[in-house]
Design a protein that fits this description.
Elements lengths: L2 E5 L2 E3 L5 E8 L6 E8 L6 E7 L4 E3 L7 E6 L4 E6 L8 E9 L6 E3 L3 E5 L2
Parallel strand pairs: 2-11
Antiparallel strand pairs: 1-3, 3-8, 4-5, 4-9, 5-6, 7-8, 9-10, 9-11
Length: 118
């Protein structure tokens, strides 16, 4: 069983930066994606960024150029470097791991709150 623990959320001023981390304990099998989703109050959960085992990335249009996702496969950890933050980025950010093989499992973290406010 894989458990995901996020860290790095908090309060930041508009224009500021923040780095989120998500450490996965347990074994993740085969080709997989590690990613970040977010859910703002009253809105649906949405994909922010994903990175697959080989390093290819995918970003939501709203964060492209401002956020950077990376992963350390040896540490089973994924990072999200967020820059030029604005109040619209305020949300609970959730870590996600999805095994892409047949019968692959999907795991979610409990979330970390990011608040962008002056």
């Amino acid at each position: 069983q894989v458990q995901l623990v996020e860290s790095g959320g908090g309060l930041v001023q508009p224009g500021g930066s923040l780095r989120l981390s998500c450490a996965a304990s347990g074994s993740i099998f085969g080709l997989n994606t590690m990613g970040w989703y977010r859910q703002a109050p009253g809105k649906r959960r949405e994909l922010v960024a994903q990175i697959i085992t080989g390093g290819s990335t995918n970003y939501a249009a709203s964060v492209k150029g401002r956020f950077t996702i990376s992963r350390d496969n040896a540490k089973n950890t994924v990072y999200l470097q967020m820059s030029s933050l604005n109040p619209e980025d305020t949300a609970v950010y959730y870590c996600n791991v999805m095994e892409l093989g047949v019968g692959g499992m999907e795991y979610w973290g409990k979330g970390t709150l990011v608040t962008v406010s002056s």
